[in-house]
């Protein structure tokens, strides 16, 4: 776990989507006021570590707020830019580490590629001053990978790894030109990442946004693999896409894909290619019909959520049928 306590926040319970407009508006006002108090007080201090702690608290409140993902990202960005206004100018050496940590955390929530040059510049200074720790190195590398800048990741590896045996450089097979289509990065058995268009066929198709490191998602996938009614749909009607996060491990993906040939993982290229999907809570299930999103739900409770999977595919739920016969 490269950023302790951050990845699990995607699995937090969101507020009820069916809340009334009035109560939703009151909640947003209260949440906004609370967040304003949190970061406006801290922005008055020059203590970067104190502001980092406040940023963690405020961003955690946003993540649990129940807002749509794009709104959460915008709110986190507002808090970040309000707390760390000095990022546009000279940064004192003693502030580099907390600013690096804050920028890494903000990038985790916003997946904003514009932050990468700033993060890299801060890391270079930390490396020069020898204040960069192993976790900082790993987070810098993971930032490149999360933003799908694999060439940048390979250049970073070449810069900071002296011996070739220590390098984890991965060959890349990208698309020849910019594309308007949704894309994925396929994880090859031999070390190679291959970017390809995502094909959503006509009829009902399920996209599962997940991660091999999320046990809720793994439980859901295994439940689908073991279900007799869903088994025929695995290869052609269900696709697993790993979200952009800071926990990429090539071996973990190849191990999963080797063990689950019917439901292998590919990497989502960018959240922005999926604007209609509102949630990034893991796992998120997005049902498409003839290429259009028709149903979306998130989370996988301990007892499972197979009823919604069946409903999405238009299948009769055997559990419901058995209960109706009693």
TrEMBL record:
Residues 11-20 have a biased composition (Polar residues). Residues 1-20 are annotated as: Disordered. This is Thioredoxin domain-containing protein. It comes from Massilia frigida.
